[in-house]
Specification:
Shape: globular
Radius of gyration: 12 Å
Number of helices: 4
Structural class: mainly alpha
Helix content: 55-70%
Order of helices and strands: HHHH
Largest sheet: none
Oligomer: single chain
Length: about 70
C-alpha cells in the first residue's frame, strides 16, 4: 500500500499505470466515461483533478483506493 498525500502523487501513480498498460490519455478518458481532454487538463495542472475523475481512472486501470482518516501532522 502506498500512502498518497497530494493529488499530484496520485496522478503520478495513475500515469505510470497508464503507460505500463499502453493506454493513451484519450482512450483512458473514454473508458472512464470522461471528456477526452480531462486527463490532459489534469496533467497540465500538475495532477490537479477531481476525486471523481481520479476514481474513474483508477477503476479503468485496475487500481484500488482506500481512504482512511488522517491523524494530522
Amino acid at each position: 500500500m502506498t500512502k498518497i498525500a497530494t493529488a499530484g502523487a496520485l496522478f503520478d501513480i495513475i500515469d505510470r499505470q497508464r503507460d505500463e498498460l499502453g493506454i493513451s490519455q484519450r482512450d483512458l478518458c473514454k473508458r472512464a466515461g470522461l471528456a477526452h481532454g480531462t486527463y490532459w487538463y489534469a496533467a497540465s495542472r500538475g495532477g490537479d483533478m477531481t476525486l471523481r475523475a481520479a476514481l474513474a481512472y483508477c477503476n479503468v486501470l485496475g487500481l484500488s483506493v482506500r481512504v482512511t482518516k488522517g491523524r494530522g501532522q
